[in-house]
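BUG: 3D viewer hangs when loading the predicted structure for this chain

Environment: internal workstation, default settings.
Expected: structure renders.
Actual: progress bar stalls at 90%.

Input used:
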Amino acid sequence: MDDDAPVDYIARTTEQYASLGYEPYAWARRPETPPWTPLERPLAESTVVLIASGGAYREGQVAFHWKDDTGIRRIPTDQPACDVRVTHFAYDLEPARADPNIVFPVDRLNELVDEGVLGGLAPEALACMGGIYSVRRAEEVLAPAMVEAVTSARASGTDIDMALLVPV
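Structure tokens produced before the viewer hung:
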């Protein structure tokens, strides 16, 4: 097996469930795609909020639990990625711990702001544990909490034009 080959998670999960004698995994399905919302300003004038699902957290915060942790960690974006810690069960942590920008690209986004490619970066990024087995908990708890966090930030005066989701 090629260690650099991507993992086909759908096939892998299907095989694992079958080998354990479980019913086939019930994949989440969406009857329709969400509406596309174009930017109202050029990218160079727009502010982005970073949302990362790789289990990033700031030193001093509680690390994510591996099983269905629907919590959110707010991480200041004026601090370098070397101050960020990561924990996750679904990927090899060694590279991300050596360079958290792999799963939490705060330094790269700040560079894009400095270069004028982006207008700004929201003062706080939002991080979560992306490996949530319960679709219901992800839909009913985590997603609304993320929306509320961004909505509250905008209501309190934080300029946010778009979100960048960094999935794991």
